[in-house]
Design a protein that fits this description.
Number of helices: 6
Strand content: 5-15%
Strand order of the largest sheet: 1-2
Helix content: 40-55%
Shape: elongated
Length: 169
């Protein structure tokens, strides 16, 4: 049985790294051979990950009545998702045990997509956790950078060449 490979992507973050081409080749190979890969060397600091974890815990520790004020609606599918929300409407199944908080990348208020689809409404950030927006969106921005590195390496490894996918390195 083959194992999911762990690939250190540090060489992708350092353009002239001597192991860059080996790393670029390893990414499509893992995708083709196994279908999955695990990565290290993302450049995301452990302190950032811990700040996100603490922030998410704080969001779920907000008083119940405040969570309900931030609940998702038909008009804006972002915010608090209470337990039982996804239970079948006809009562045919047991209540779900899922509690969530739906957040997405933010879209400008004047972006036409907001009128076309409620999935693009504004995020609902709990007032009790004022750092939530900055911490979570900052983390996501760093992960977007990791995504672009991986996508660029995958494209390059498949023969598209460096920068073969717009917006990648």
């Amino acid at each position: 049985m083959q194992m999911i490979p762990t690939i250190d992507i540090t060489p992708l973050r350092e353009g002239d790294h001597p192991q860059r081409q080996q790393t670029v080749a390893a990414i499509p190979a893992a995708a083709q051979d196994i279908g999955f890969l695990s990565i290290t060397g993302t450049g995301v600091a452990p302190e950032t990950v811990e700040a996100v974890r603490n922030t998410v815990r704080a969001i779920f520790d907000v008083p119940e009545n405040s969570k309900w004020e931030q609940a998702i609606t038909r008009e804006n599918y972002r915010g608090y998702i209470p337990m039982g929300f996804f239970t079948p409407n006809d009562g045919s199944g047991p209540p779900d045990k899922y509690e969530g908080y739906k957040l997405h990348h933010e879209v400008a208020a004047d972006d036409p997509i907001r009128d076309a689809c409620p999935l693009y409404g504004p995020n609902r950030w709990p007032a009790e956790v004022p750092e939530a927006r900055e911490v979570i969106l900052g983390y996501w921005a760093q992960l977007d950078g990791v995504f672009h590195l991986l996508l660029g390496a995958l494209a390059e490894g498949l023969g598209a060449g460096p920068g073969g996918v717009p917006g990648t390195v």
